[in-house]
């Protein structure tokens, strides 16, 4: 984009600036004249640049033009360089009779060469010389560069003669790209013209395929670094997939291959249609607007749209909140739709190049095709697809037999994808383009057509790679067109730190995870789901529920309930019967329940299991819900699913299974306790009889009911060894690699603030508590089992880390060491967390457990939160039976099973209100310490 001289003059009055600078040279004060004048010149330039940039920012806020803003900044920079160059030439290093070597041309390269500049971007300059460097040239370049640096600009530069430029451009693709974008700024114009002419004939001519292959390879490597999905919720607007660099790459390729200077020329060349060119310009303008606002907002060359800036950018761009969607979510949806358009344009341009150069059967995208350009044109036999005469296959790529196949039968749009999935064909670019232009054919008649829905269900439940096919359908726009409810969540982001992808990308990825589990390709991450999926009576309902489970995101109501309602409408259309439809709707309505219970409830509490089993009602539903839950969590983002969550889900499944098969009536509580004691006694035969019988009476009934056999034995050995050595403090560290946690066992005299001390020590050492089981022995000792997230790959290193934590706990309990000050002070919310607002909520529930009052505290996560909560619970004179810590991005949900000091539930309404108030204050960091709190916790009286 080029500004008129009138527009440039409105930003910076170059003539007036030159006059002011010339006036500064008229004062000759003797010694130090040069430095005084330079200082005065620099001050004048700083003032001018500051005013001009403020004007540009004001205009951006006024008209919203991203490309206009970038062009304005570039034009200001041009004028500034011209003024500095002319001042150096006429007032500082004047040459009366310049030789042929004392010439210079200044060219802008990189993004600046394209005539666009972001507020905090580097300025890339090429100083072109006719021959070798001269003292005069060196002085002028140095003067310009130091002046720009002193003005606060970051300048990338090179000084070369034309021969050097040509030689280096042949050898280095980065330099070749820079010269490709070179734009004349000032100085000797014939020098610049000579460089352009020689570059065109000596470098560009005949090397198109080499350049294209290199640029596409660079793009693939960049995408790999930034994250292969264009739907990451904190995208890099410059380097990320679907960002400005992708548009730059497109134009580099087009300029190099088609020898054009402007994008509009691609329409004349037949590469882009007029509407596609408009999409190119709209995408570029939007991305530039976002980038310029981001630089102005942060005052640094920030290219990542992180959570802490997204809302402010949305406000600057004028987005407002709608029912079910925040202003920032509407802005980010627009961003992802633009990123999708950039991907479409990439495929269109590459398809045009491919059509011209090669027909290649296989390979990873167009970059693979371009890498094989030098091998010559490959061709293959054209054949009709068996049973589908409207389609042909050439070199393993599916294409249309005629341009009217969709007009004559719109169901062919779905049939094409079903054929491609079934035979593992690639889509021909021509077919993809024809599909995009035929989307308007998908109307209510097509959506309700039984054959179209049969084809869609075949794709969705394919045993091949349904994720790949669904993603291609989404990229063409067909998926959202055929299922309008899905279309509403395309490019929709959720403004939180838990979800890594947009809703549509998450849904498609979840289908991919499900298919991986069914094929047995998921490794050892979730063995139970892998085994169970092979035993399902109806796999179809699982895939449909997976596809629809978040379909109602972005609506004002609960998305699980709304999603179930949508499923009841869509499933009959897809061909499911009433029973299948009801199962899908149930799975969607309850798709978060198993995860919530597993992570935030005491799975050793009998009522937790019986209530969950009553909700599930059948073993088949339990299987379906477990597999769906695993795939859902896995598809949220890398690292979200871990071995500990898998273990919790397996524990809940195995505990619930007998209730759904009638097995829960085999053993009563008392029989279970007796059997646990007998099994442990058999493992402790090496103990003296008196020690063994005494130990079996040392624990309350609840301990025997909820502790697994291996842990019972480990605890017994730990306590026995402590007794023999006369110790009142003992610790054990057990790394659990498969679950991704490390288990800390703490045996200590019972104390109301013991868990608080443990939480503080873990926080001080950077350890993240994910779960805790709190037990008290009949002789007044606490036996607490704490699970912390694993950080180190090796068990030995992880054990040493755990031992470091237990040493701090021991030193603190002995009074030898205090927890670091930051723990005792109000912890502040830092970094990206500041962008989020999570309402604090404290629930006090006596219905979830027969023996405990359940406190569920949710709010904004922050360092030291668990420490503050446990301190507050201690001052409230409550005993903690178990604690369950869950974080969902910026939101934390901490659940404590508590009793009063007599082992009873908290029934008094007034006391419940005090608990809610005190814990809500603790979430905010306002902890009330009660000096009268008891120094010893009474033994828990846990009823069987």
Automatic annotation (TrEMBL):
<dbReference type="Pfam" id="PF01909">
    <property type="entry name" value="NTP_transf_2"/>
</dbReference>
<comment type="similarity">
    <text>Belongs to the GlnD family.</text>
</comment>
<keyword id="KW-0511">Multifunctional enzyme</keyword>
<feature type="domain" description="ACT">
    <location>
        <begin position="743"/>
        <end position="825"/>
    </location>
</feature>
<keyword id="KW-0677">Repeat</keyword>
<comment type="function">
    <text>Modifies, by uridylylation and deuridylylation, the PII regulatory proteins (GlnB and homologs), in response to the nitrogen status of the cell that GlnD senses through the glutamine level. Under low glutamine levels, catalyzes the conversion of the PII proteins and UTP to PII-UMP and PPi, while under higher glutamine levels, GlnD hydrolyzes PII-UMP to PII and UMP (deuridylylation). Thus, controls uridylylation state and activity of the PII proteins, and plays an important role in the regulation of nitrogen metabolism.</text>
</comment>
<dbReference type="InterPro" id="IPR010043">
    <property type="entry name" value="UTase/UR"/>
</dbReference>
<dbReference type="InterPro" id="IPR013546">
    <property type="entry name" value="PII_UdlTrfase/GS_AdlTrfase"/>
</dbReference>
<dbReference type="InterPro" id="IPR043519">
    <property type="entry name" value="NT_sf"/>
</dbReference>
<dbReference type="Pfam" id="PF01966">
    <property type="entry name" value="HD"/>
</dbReference>
<dbReference type="InterPro" id="IPR002934">
    <property type="entry name" value="Polymerase_NTP_transf_dom"/>
</dbReference>
<protein>
    <recommendedName>
        <fullName>Bifunctional uridylyltransferase/uridylyl-removing enzyme</fullName>
        <ecNumber>2.7.7.59</ecNumber>
        <ecNumber>3.1.4.-</ecNumber>
    </recommendedName>
</protein>
<dbReference type="Pfam" id="PF08335">
    <property type="entry name" value="GlnD_UR_UTase"/>
</dbReference>
<dbReference type="InterPro" id="IPR003607">
    <property type="entry name" value="HD/PDEase_dom"/>
</dbReference>
<keyword id="KW-0548">Nucleotidyltransferase</keyword>
<feature type="region of interest" description="Uridylyltransferase">
    <location>
        <begin position="1"/>
        <end position="377"/>
    </location>
</feature>
<dbReference type="InterPro" id="IPR002912">
    <property type="entry name" value="ACT_dom"/>
</dbReference>
<keyword id="KW-0378">Hydrolase</keyword>
<feature type="domain" description="HD">
    <location>
        <begin position="503"/>
        <end position="625"/>
    </location>
</feature>
<dbReference type="GO" id="GO:0008773">
    <property type="term" value="F:[protein-PII] uridylyltransferase activity"/>
</dbReference>
<dbReference type="Pfam" id="PF24931">
    <property type="entry name" value="ACT_ACR9_3rd"/>
</dbReference>
<keyword id="KW-0460">Magnesium</keyword>
<dbReference type="InterPro" id="IPR006674">
    <property type="entry name" value="HD_domain"/>
</dbReference>
<dbReference type="InterPro" id="IPR045865">
    <property type="entry name" value="ACT-like_dom_sf"/>
</dbReference>
<keyword id="KW-0808">Transferase</keyword>
<feature type="domain" description="ACT">
    <location>
        <begin position="854"/>
        <end position="934"/>
    </location>
</feature>
């Amino acid at each position: 984009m080029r500004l008129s001289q009138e527009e440039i003059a409105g930003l910076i009055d170059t003539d007036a600036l030159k006059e002011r600078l010339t006036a500064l040279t008229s004062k000759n004060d003797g010694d130090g004249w040069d430095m005084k004048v330079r200082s005065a010149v620099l001050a004048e330039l700083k003032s001018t640049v500051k005013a001009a940039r403020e004007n540009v920012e004001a205009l951006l806020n006024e008209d919203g033009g991203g490309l206009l803003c970038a062009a304005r900044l570039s034009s200001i920079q041009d004028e500034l360089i011209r003024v500095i160059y002319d001042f150096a030439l006429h007032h500082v290093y004047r040459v009366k009779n310049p030789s042929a070597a004392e010439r210079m041309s200044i060219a802008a390269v990189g993004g600046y060469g394209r005539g666009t500049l972001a507020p905090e971007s580097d300025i890339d300059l090429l100083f072109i010389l006719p021959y070798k460097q001269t003292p005069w040239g060196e002085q002028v370049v140095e003067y310009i560069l130091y002046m720009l640096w002193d003005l606060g600009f970051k300048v990338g530069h090179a000084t070369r003669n034309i021969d050097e430029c040509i030689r280096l451009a042949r050898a280095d693709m980065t330099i070749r790209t820079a010269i490709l974008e070179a734009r004349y700024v000032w100085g000797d114009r014939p020098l610049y013209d000579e460089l352009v002419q020689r570059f065109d004939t000596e470098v560009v001519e005949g090397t198109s395929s080499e350049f294209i292959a290199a640029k596409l390879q660079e793009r693939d490597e960049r995408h790999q670094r930034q994250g292969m999905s264009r739907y990451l919720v904190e995208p890099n607007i410059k380097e990320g997939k679907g960002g400005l660099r992708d548009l730059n790459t497109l134009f580099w390729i087009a300029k190099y291959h088609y020898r054009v200077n402007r994008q509009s020329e691609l329409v004349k060349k037949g590469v882009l249609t007029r509407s596609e060119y408009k999409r190119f310009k709209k995408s570029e303008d939007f991305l530039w607007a976002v980038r310029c606002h981001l630089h102005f907002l942060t005052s640094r060359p920030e290219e990542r749209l992180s959570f802490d800036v997204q809302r402010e950018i949305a406000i600057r761009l004028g987005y407002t909140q709608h029912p079910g969607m925040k202003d920032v979510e509407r802005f980010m949806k627009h961003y992802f739709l633009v990123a999708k358009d950039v991907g479409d344009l990439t495929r269109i341009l590459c398809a045009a190049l491919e059509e011209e150069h090669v027909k290649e059967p296989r390979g990873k995208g167009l970059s693979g095709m371009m890498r094989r350009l030098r091998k010559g044109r490959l061709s293959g036999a054209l054949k009709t697809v068996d049973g589908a005469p409207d389609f042909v296959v050439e070199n393993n790529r599916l294409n249309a037999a005629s341009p009217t196949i969709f007009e004559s039968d719109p169901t062919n749009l779905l049939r094409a994808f079903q054929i491609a999935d079934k035979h593992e064909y690639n889509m021909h670019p021509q077919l993809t383009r024809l599909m995009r232009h035929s989307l308007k054919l998908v109307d209510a008649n097509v959506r309700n057509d039984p054959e179209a829905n049969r084809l869609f269900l075949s794709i969705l439940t394919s045993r091949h790679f349904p994720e790949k096919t669904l993603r291609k359908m989404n990229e063409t726009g067909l998926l959202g067109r055929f299922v309008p409810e899905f279309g509403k969540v395309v490019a929709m982001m959720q403004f939180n730190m838990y979800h890594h992808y947009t809703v549509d990308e998450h849904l498609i990825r979840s289908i991919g995870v499900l298919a991986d589990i069914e094929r047995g390709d998921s490794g050892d991450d979730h063995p139970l789901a892998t085994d169970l999926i092979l035993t399902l009576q109806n796999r179809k309902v699982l895939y449909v529920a997976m596809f629809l489970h978040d379909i109602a995101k972005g609506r004002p109501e609960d998305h699980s309930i709304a999603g179930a309602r949508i499923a009841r409408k869509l499933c009959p259309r897809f061909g499911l019967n009433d029973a299948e439809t009801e199962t899908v709707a149930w799975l969607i309505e309850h798709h978060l329940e198993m995860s919530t219970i597993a992570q935030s409830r005491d799975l050793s509490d009998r009522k937790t299991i019986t209530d969950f089993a009553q909700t599930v009602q059948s073993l088949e539903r339990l299987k379906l819900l477990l597999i769906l839950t695993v795939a859902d969590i896995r598809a949220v983002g890398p690292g979200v699913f871990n071995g500990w969550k898998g273990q919790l889900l397996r524990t809940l499944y195995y505990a619930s299974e007998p209730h759904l098969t009638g097995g829960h009536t085999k053993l009563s509580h008392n029989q279970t306790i007796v059997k646990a004691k007998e099994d442990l006694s058999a493992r402790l035969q090496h103990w003296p009889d008196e020690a063994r019988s005494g130990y079996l009476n040392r624990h309350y009934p609840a301990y025997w009911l909820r502790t697994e056999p291996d842990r019972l034995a480990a605890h017994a050995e730990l306590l026995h060894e402590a007794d023999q050595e006369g110790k009142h403090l003992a610790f054990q560290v057990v790394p659990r690699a498969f679950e991704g946690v490390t288990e800390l066992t703490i045996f200590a005299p019972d104390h109301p603030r013991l868990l608080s001390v443990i939480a503080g020590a873990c926080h001080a050492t950077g350890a993240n508590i994910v779960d805790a089981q709190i037990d008290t022995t009949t002789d007044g000792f606490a036996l607490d089992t704490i699970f912390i997230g694993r950080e180190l790959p090796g068990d030995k290193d992880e054990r040493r880390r755990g031992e470091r934590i237990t040493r701090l706990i021991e030193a603190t309990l002995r009074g030898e060491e205090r927890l670091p000050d930051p723990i005792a002070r109000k912890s502040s919310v830092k970094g990206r967390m500041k962008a989020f607002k999570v309402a604090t909520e404290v629930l006090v529930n006596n219905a979830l457990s027969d023996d405990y009052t359940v406190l569920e505290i949710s709010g904004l996560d922050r360092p030291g939160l668990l420490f503050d909560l446990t301190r507050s619970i201690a001052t409230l004179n409550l005993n903690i039976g178990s604690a369950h810590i869950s974080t969902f991005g910026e939101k934390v949900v901490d659940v404590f099973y508590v009793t009063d000091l007599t082992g009873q539930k908290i029934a008094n309404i007034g006391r419940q209100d005090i608990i809610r108030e005190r814990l809500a204050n603790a979430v905010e960091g306002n902890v009330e310490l009660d000096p009268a709190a008891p120094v010893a916790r009474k033994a828990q009286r846990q009823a069987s």
